[in-house]
Design a protein that fits this description.
Blueprint: H1 4-15, H2 25-41, H3 46-60, H4 63-66, H5 71-87, E1 102-108, H6 114-129, E2 133-138, H7 143-156, E3 160-161, H8 169-182, E4 187-192, H9 200-213, E5 217-223, H10 229-241, E6 245-249, H11 258-267, E7 271-275, E8 283-285, H12 288-296
Parallel strand pairs: 1-4, 1-5, 2-3, 2-4, 5-6, 6-7
Antiparallel strand pairs: 7-8
The structure holds guanosine-5'-diphosphate (GDP).
Residues 108, 110-116, 148, 194, 221, 249-250, 252-253, 275-278, 282 line the site of guanosine-5'-diphosphate.
Enzyme class: hydrolase
Binding site for GTP: 108-115, 191-195, 249-252
Keywords: Cytoplasm, GTP-binding, Hydrolase, Nucleotide-binding, Ribonucleoprotein, RNA-binding, Signal recognition particle
């Protein structure tokens, strides 16, 4: 599971300050140095760590902490709250339309878990949010991607709209919207093409679909295992498409967690969902405070 090492190291850093009646400046500086090292070793972006530590320092050295009965606990709380802030503070729900069909474009590099996430999200919407979703296979380059989506759709009882590989992605998207209207769907999720790298052709195709569909959400899947590269990928997609949310996948892997802790702070794009395994149910709505609890162990 992500964050295992980080949680352990932070726990050790706090051990020396909790339970103490009074904190000296040295106690505080030792703890801050340890927190800083833990974050850097977890591969959190350097600039993010620097700002994070200086915010904690400012708050932890304040009068309220130094004169409190249990200053250690207060400092731990300050760190907790700053981690929540790094992760986005507020929950970021799906931008459902009040009426009419909500449209969601799923984008991301190949292998990040985009197709799996599309099905997981459709399943969650159907089972937990009472929505009536339609999945649309817009990755028309790879026949395997269409088959994969169809298989997933069948397993969760969600219809998959596809015109095969002969029809262009934009045309598939257009016809899917007509189909959704005619058949009373209230949510349409477009599984768009994935590539190994970002290229102009991919971005053009995605921009064309975006211009036509005018999606309520553009969700980018990023793989936790790719560490800080998450930030580069998210920044590139965001620059070109204005992504409205992130889906962090493979949090069940043994990633160090640095990308996750950096990406929101750098791109300002909220995390909306997290993938926690290969099974359809292994998806959670993202809550910054719960994730912070997990990181702090
Ligand atoms: P796509 O190319 O981006 O559409 O990626 P896929 O949806 O095909 O997923 C690629 C691989 O990652 C598949 O083997 C998935 O089962 C796996 N995968 C997707 N999400 C997760 C996750 O949250 N955890 C784990 N462990 N594996 C995942």
């Amino acid at each position: 599971m992500a964050f295992e090492n980080l949680s352990e190291r932070l726990g050790k850093a706090f051990k020396n300050i909790t339970g103490k009646g009074k904190l000296t400046e040295k106690n505080m500086n030792d703890m801050l140095r340890e927190v800083r090292m833990s974050l850097l070793e977890a591969d959190v972006n350097y600039g993010v760590v620097k700002d994070f530590i200086s915010r904690i320092k400012e708050k932890a050295m304040g009068q309220e902490v130094l004169t409190s009965l249990n200053p250690g606990q207060m400092v731990v709380k300050i760190v907790h709250d700053e981690i929540v802030a790094l992760l986005g503070t507020e929950d970021a729900p799906v931008n459902y339309k009040k009426s009419g069909i909500t449209t969601i474009m799923m984008v991301g590099l190949q292998g990040t878990g985009k197709t799996t996430a599309s099905a997981k999200i459709a399943n969650l919407m159907k089972k937990k949010q009472g929505r009536n979703p339609l999945l649309v296979a817009c990755d028309v380059i790879r026949p395997a991607a269409i088959d994969q989506l169809k298989t997933l759709g069948e397993s969760i009882g969600v219809e998959v709209f596809s015109l095969g590989v002969e029809t262009k992605a934009l045309e598939t998207a257009k016809q899917a919207m007509v189909y959704a209207k005619e058949n009373g769907y209230d949510t349409v999720l477009f599984d768009t093409a994935g590539r190994l790298h970002i290229d102009d052709e991919l971005m053009q195709e995605l921009s064309d679909i975006k211009a036509y569909v005018q999606p309520d959400d553009i969700l980018l899947t990023v793989d936790a295992m790719t560490g800080q590269d998450i930030v580069n990928v998210a920044s590139s997609f965001h620059e070109q498409l204005e992504v409205s949310g992130l889906v962090l996948t493979k949090l069940d892997g043994d990633s160090r967690g640095g990308g996750i802790l950096s990406v929101r702070a750098i791109t300002n794009v909220p995390v909306k969902f997290v993938g926690l395994g290969e099974k359809i149910e292994d998806l959670d709505v993202f809550h910054p405070d719960r994730m912070a609890d997990r990181i702090l162990g």
